[in-house]
Amino acid sequence: MNLLAKRGDNLNFPSLFGxxxxxxxxxxxxxxxxxxxxxxANVLETDDEYRIELAAPGMExxxxxxxxxxxALCISSEKELEINDEQDGYTRKxxxxxxxxxxxxxxxxxxxxxxxxxYKDGVLAxxxxxxxxxxxxxxxxxxxx
Length: 145
Hints:
Blueprint: H1 18-21, E1 41-45, E2 49-55, E3 64-69, E4 72-87, E5 90-105, E6 116-120, E7 123-129
């Protein structure tokens, strides 16, 4: 497995862009309170299938859109919430909007006609069965004559 890592230079002279690219500036929020809306995903491969789980609490089943486009499994969600509250001369109006989109390139071994998705307890779970020809065959012992 190849891992991406930050490159460390062993040069003894300062770089023009050293402080700009060598720290974690680009992974920090642009302003306080900003968070990424892309849910964390777990991907598991077994002999018979792939499983993808996305943590998306607070959503409803109707908020998700799952489709296959150009060999990629695309998962997206969009949810708007608006609160209007008027009482005792006070008016409060709040709204929020959450959306994300995530894509996974499908290997040729996936039988895309049999993909299933469920949403339960804040987790969107997808099961991607493998084609029969892609499944591991059991080990076969050949006797020597």
